[in-house]
Queue: 4 jobs
Job 1
Amino acid sequence: MMGRVTNYSKEYLLFKSMVYVEEYGMKSITARDLADFCGCSTYPIYTHFKSISGLKEKILEEITVCFERYLAECNSNDVLSTVYLLKDFFSIHESIRGIIAKSELDMNSLFKRPFFSYIKSHTKIKEEKLLELLWLNALGSLSSDNFSQDFFETMNAVWDKNEVTDEYLESILKEQLS
């Protein structure tokens, strides 16, 4: 007598993989452990993904696509509010923040390119130096609340260290607000 056959879709396995990675981290993922977590053999995993490395790449791709979808739905052209895009994204997608924290993933490789693209298309800021400063501020916003004096002091220190003059910054902000 043959055992019951259950089909596991690629989407289901990807979802379960993301739940697994949120709990245990990307480095610890193995086919056997993931199969046990999903309640299946390793066969469906290798049917849908060529390797565990391929599965990890798909997880990272899914995170980036999710961020890009979030940005596509955003309608913020105010420079100051763009600083909080990452923080807002993670407040909505807490599981992704868990995956990143548990797996010690590089935020730059996942989010920087789409963030720059969003800023360029929704503001008048095009200069690399200013984009980098906004990115650093966005990363800084993750470890503070919106009204944190420490965050604003750090933000000002970063801008000052990078020799952005008050007049220059003021003219850019005036352009943004007009």
Job 2
Amino acid sequence: MDLENIYNLWKQSTGISTDSRTCEKSNLFFALSGENFNGNKFAEKAIDNGAIAAVIDDVKYKNGPEYILVNNCLKTLQLLSKLHRNKLNTSILAITGSNGKTTTKELIYSVLSSQKKISFTKGNLNNHIGVPLSLLQTKQDTEIAIIEMGANHIGEIAFLCELASPNYGIITNIGKAHLEGFGSLQGVIKAKSELYNSIKNTGGEIILNNDDKLLKELSTGIKSFTYGTTSEANITAEIISSNPALIVDWKHKGSKYTIQSHLYGQYNFPNIMAAIASGIFFGISPDAICRAIENYIPENSRSQILKTKNNTILLDAYNANPVSMNGAIISFREFKAEKPLLILGDMFELGKDSEEEHKQVINNLENTGFSEVFLVGSEFYKFAGSNNFRYFEKTSDLKNWLKSNKLKDFTILIKGSRGMKLELILDNL
């Protein structure tokens, strides 16, 4: 069956499924395979669960006409999403960056959806599988689709741009993240700038952080709409308070507006500015922009302010890299809590730079004057005994310690990579 016929079959379906366990009636099942599993083995179960058809790439699993044999299931899914995108009149806004891309995406969705028909990347479906799925979830009447693009190696964003053909783009920032895959900061810069290259080649426009010198340099020759803290930006803003939630003033066409957000940390200020600028760029009224950002409450362990029976928690445990970690520490220091405590977990995917980057975080902590610091994970644990901080090799070790050592009246910053699962200690705080 050729791609156009698969596309027509998909249009008759109730959506794409890549997991036979959750496959619903009339879904089109794609038997994606990975290093440790063969999706073809689950095609029959998907059909039994009501799938309209199963796309497979191993002939020995073809048990009837409802099994569609292709050369490569993943490639077919990607080409299907590209075909669908090319049939859409929807504008695509692509977002990437080392930090803040998911929060920025959600803020922009909150703003734009207040007055327009919007679709956006759900969760963290931002890779070579997630972006095709996000594109295929975009309906014909969608005005703007917000597509988050993640990457851990050079060439990945360029490939995702080939599928999505973005009209507009935002790079939140570029820093030391996924160094294991990129090899160096220069590798990160090259990879993230692939979005700008795509926008430039298609004559699109970017929404640019005018305060970021690197992004300004990379954006040379590309039409841009800017946000920042200086008067040369199209949208200007300033932090009024961050105690602990951000209160921001911003200006547009001589009028000033105030936003009282639910976001913790000054590192979220550029994310808020990006949402404001996107709103103005796409024609959302200033009042609607303010309401949308004020109504946005972060989830999934991102920049959340939680109050337990005994303590106040500033939870930002969805992800961490050197830039976001040190940004969180600086914001926490400026918060000036009466009884501050930092619980920081390992930063993943730093490759050969991991030990040095974790050591640098410890050095920064020693210079901030914090006395109550808990460091969790095998990378931080290498430095146990080098100072008065408490070290725990695993999150479970900290959890057990907290069971017998109750903390009370602390303001606690929790920050670490997703794999550390630091949110598991919340019940003990």
Job 3
Amino acid sequence: MNLPSTQPIPLLLGIPDDGMAKVGLDPARGMISVVLTGNAPFFTQVSKEVSGRLPIVYFGPGINPKATRAPRGAPLVNGITEPDLCSVALDAIAAMVDETGAHCFNPPRAVQASRRDEVSRRLAGIDGVLAPRTIRVPAIAEPAELATAIADAGLAWPVLVRVAGGHGNSPLRKVDDAAGLSAALRTLPWGGRDLYVSEYVDYRGADGLFRKLRLVVVGKDVFLRHHIAAEGWHVHAASRTSREELVERELGEIANFERDLLPQLRDRVVAIGDVLGLDYFGIDAALLPDGRLLVFEANAAMNVLHDSNPHEPRWGQLIGRIRTALVNLLFTPKLWRAARTDTSH
């Protein structure tokens, strides 16, 4: 790949606030993998040519911020995606960017503002978008405290409860009333951790299936990563229906996305991007019968480049297009939001 810039650009990663890493087995390589949660995985999903031009600099607990200064005005790539897991690292990077005036891909202040409760509040004013009301509940000792927080916020039942920092198919529970909170919390790893509670919106289609679309924004480009049909309300890759006609319909929607669906969504996607202030992010949502876009989450934390079905080449082709767009954007700092909004020059 011919990179737009040959200059290395520092990739800033965060050590989680609790200092913990996720250890597992990489079945493709037969090796133990160590993952610092809260960081974008894309730097491991690009070619060695690309990753070699993204030298990693770590931030987080126990690291002296003065040892990680950046040249004034230098381009930087922020790889931290999860403010609930890497707040110390984000604070340090944000302070450095403020001090040096560096142009930063996915600016740390924008990532800090991408908490679920903040996004819900900030998207509320966009026409044609429904962002369910969401609250963040500090670590509780008893389920009754959660019931009180829900009542005080005036949230309508049923609600969805998840541990802060969780994504994808991480534990998420639908609770119909206050009496169900104790049972729900027994199945969540919530001890000592903050929780998010969101109002549940029924988005079941006329055919009885739930459909979730994932939009991926890369600069000014928008891609449809998937439009999964599933029988249950908690939709993710593993819950995709195996019915061949529905999978083919999904792949057809992806192939014709720019012609059919994108014109309906572009203005709303642009508005969401302007609110978030991110260069590279995803939107998980559903189209409601009245045409509104029900947004489940919008942030930089989605694992977009992972191919969960390598036996179907059309998925790989789509991921390849997204990867190419991302690499081109990474190495063209003048196209980053920070550069386009900088009025100091």
Job 4
Amino acid sequence: MTQSNIPQYHHSYSEDENLSIYKYLKSATNKNLVENIFILCQSYPEEHQKNIIEAFLQFGKEIADREYLNNCYNELLRCVNAWKKYKYSLETYPSIMKIREAYRLYKEEPGKLPEGSLLFDSFMAKYEKTVCAGYAYSTVQQFLISEDKKRGIKRPKRPKDFYHSLQEIAVKQYLPKEALALLKKSELEDIIITLLECADAPELQNRPSVIISFLTSKYRFPSHKKSAKLFTSTTKGTLDLKDNCDRLLKELKQLQKETTQLEEEQNI
């Protein structure tokens, strides 16, 4: 980028100062940018500095809460799916054992039986409406693979993870200041530019806290567009995420109850 295309970050900056800031913004990490945001806050008069820092920390808290709940939701969804799979396996396994036993006995029947794939076809012709009812040919073939084989369906094992509450879920929780680094780099650059522009203009020094408070409100509601604009997120809001987490916790509890009953019926 030529110097003529570099933004004028502050009306008092020389071309070299502008270029230096440009290079810094492009090379800095998000963590570096957040650290410098709080350093820049210290250049404001005390009465404005306090409001700006509080606004930033509130913004960070909004991001942290949302990230935490979203991670909890994803973990709960994974856990629920694991228990659903386990429940399905428990429901299916008795049928698998019946089909395997029927196939074993069929092969031992007196008289000449066809060999290879014809043996399976002959077995299905006899049992497709009884023991194998409701299962496709390919599914029954999968059932008949020995448990000792890699592809064989084995006795289902109960999932290791189960949660009664969000507090039990081990996901990273961010401090508000840490969470600000989760913003897009371009968003952090915009914040720094705003702080630079307003720092030494008394009539503008209250503007950053107002802008950050507005951005917090804007960020609170999810964007439904495929590519979110600056200071928006496609992640659901905290209230929706909390409701979804509560729903999954209830579903998990019900799945545990249903699978426990199936385990007792099968003496597992």
